[in-house]
Amino acid sequence: MHEHRDYEGAKIGMWLFLFTEVLLFGGLFLLYAVYLHRYPAEFHAAGKDLSRIFGTANTIVLITSSLCMALAISALQRGKVVLSQRLVLLTVAMAGVFLVNKFFEWSAKIGHGIYPDSPALLKLPPGEMVFFNLYYLMTGLHGIHVIIGGAVLMYGWHLMRVGRVTPEHFVFLENGGLYWHLVDLVWIYLFPLFYLVV
Amino acid sequence: MSADAHDHPNFFQPLPGTKGGIASWIFSTDHKRIGMLYLYCIVAMFLVGLTLGFLIRLELIAPGRTIMGPQTYNALFTLHGVVMIFLVVIPSIPAAFGNIFLPIQIGAEDVSFPRLNIFSWWLYVIGAVLAVVSLVTGKGAPDTGWTFYVPFSAVTTTNVDVAVVAVFILGFSSILTGLNFITTLHRLRAPGMTWTRLPLFCWSLYATGWIQVLATPVLGITVLLIFAERVLGVGLFDPSRGGDPILYQHLFWIYSHPAVYIMILPAMGVISEILPVFARKPIFGYKMIAFSSLAIAFAGSLVWAHHMFVSGMSDTAVMVFSFLTFVVAIPSAIKVFNWVSTLYKGSIRVEPPLWYALAFIFLFSIGGLTGLVLGAAGTDVHVHDTYFVVAHFHYVIFGGLGFGLFGAMHYWFPKVYGRMYDKRIANWSCLIAFVGFNILYFPMFIIGLQGMPRRYYDYLPKYAEGHFLSTMGSWVLAAGLLLMFWNLWRGIRHGKPVGRNPWGAATLEWMVPSPPPHHNFDAEPVVTHGPYDYTGVKPDA
User: Fold this and answer.
1) Which chain B residues have a beta carbon less than 8 Å from that of A27?
2) Closest by Cβ to B236, choosing from A17, A31, A125
3) Do A143 and A99 touch, CB atoms closer than 8 A?
4) Pick from B252, B236, B234: nearest CA to B244
5) How confident is the model over B260-317, as pLDDT tens digits?
6) CATH superfamily of A7-195
7) Any idea where the Cytochrome oxidase subunit I profile domain is (chain B) (predicted)?
8) What is the DSSP letter of A165?
9) pTM value?
10) C-alpha torsion A100→A104→A109→A112, nearest 10
């Protein structure tokens, strides 16, 4: 039997998987919407405690990484394998920067005693507790997706190195890129909802 | 075995040049083998769930303590629910028969993502193992009911953590199956297999696949939140931390109501396959049946809050959800009317699969109509959380999906094993199970209307007769089902060998040898007629 390659099928499969990811986050966005409606003033107050500088920096990093990823796929399609590999590495490096940034941001908050189930958090008004619980859950789940996305892209880089992802067979990298754009897209919603809600 | 067994070994036998063995099954990417793995796991888990249900009924035979204490009882009904819902009925027909027959029915060699397919079986096994682990580890088996409602699920000391992780993994497995089927149906149909020549079983799996893909992630995040609530103390559903427990119910039912269509739609697909074969005429209203599957999938996703009429909702919301619930009845009724019209003036040949299909239509109709009693906002307040709900649910899921699954087993048995079971015993077991089923569940409608609450360990003497009758029914039903499984088991070993097409069906799976070979088709088939065009098709055994 010859090897079966169905790029159209692979992409349909990936898009269906992205739908499931959107709905996974959708449950949390639904909770956010209801609680924002219930506690507008508390969300406003709690949002002020988040660092807009960190948030903005991370947004820029992630959007730029998405651009790199798109360029990596274009480069591969045009046969520039080495350039594509470098761009993928750059994308993953920016994912790393994002996570390091996030680590410092979370550490600062935790240093102030604000984390789920902490004594300081339990003294806050209920709406602010909900805000911070949602903040940790949603950015945490997003962070896990950044890690998974980075791992997938590193694997794509490895496949390029061993010649299994090539300018003719690039669907793995293309699907990995789609996943990465989703990770980016989720953040583009998280950023205004948590940092700019004030 | 057929004469050409050496050239074309069937899919049970080792591939030429290999030794076979257990690894050639549990790491197989052959959709038929994966389907069989699912089938055996599902039957095994069904027997576990059946035993749990049987024990619950035995406890309820008389008021007061009979065979177990209240905590054991709570654990048993929780496990009965978790095992039956997540390990049996959600995967049942799609993962077992869908895997075996969907590719063959559309003239394909396999599903679009064979490796993902075996991966989803492994997730199923891991989920099943974790569900069992949750029983015997921690501080006792979960006692929340399969719905894991907060606040109880957030505070109970029993082993809910492991159980919700099991549910999350099982949900992932279900998503991957749905994703695989949708892609397969879009990409791998043989030449000439247009969308309007697709067997209705495939149409039902297509609609089911969309619900699996779009609804299951919401369950995933919901059970993750339970986990976060218990382990991290996040408290998004905890009123003392600003949370709202009602939102848990919304999120839970946003998945779990569409999930009942994951359960019932494939069974409807099976019925749509069986009826025309034994009525010897094309199915009535092919396009409407296909369309109604999609309509049920769509409308069924918008009705979740009818589980929550008494939980606290605005009157406007109650009316909207009640109205939408009634809307779902329309495509469901379209199917039932079309099935009955298919039988009308057919040259009906009564065989075991047809009996199961008829039992399905009868039981599903009762289940569906009583669903309207629950969907109507006024009457729901009266029967909410009573045995009426238990009866309705079991009529739809056990009477519907269960009998659809048994129908599928009897219909495709000769294709899968190349042998025929004892038809007389099959008919008897269907009748016994059908009678037992009604004795078991019909009294529940009555005691439910009289006010018997569900999930209670004990009850007032005035419900004693109904409960006693119901327990008697559980014995008859269990006897019928054991007879059925024994008969099928004997058929696998000693049944009379049959040819390719013992029922005289016209879909593609009946054109390949029984059991099918490793590679479904010698050459890619070209489809020239519809799935229910019986011109010139004759049974060969």
Assistant:
1) 217-218, 221-222, 225, 251, 254
2) A31
3) yes
4) B236
5) 999 999 999 999 999 999 999 999 999 999 999 999 999 999 999 999 999 888 999 9
6) Cytochrome c oxidase, subunit III, four-helix bundle (1.20.120.80)
7) 25-528
8) S
9) 0.94
10) 150
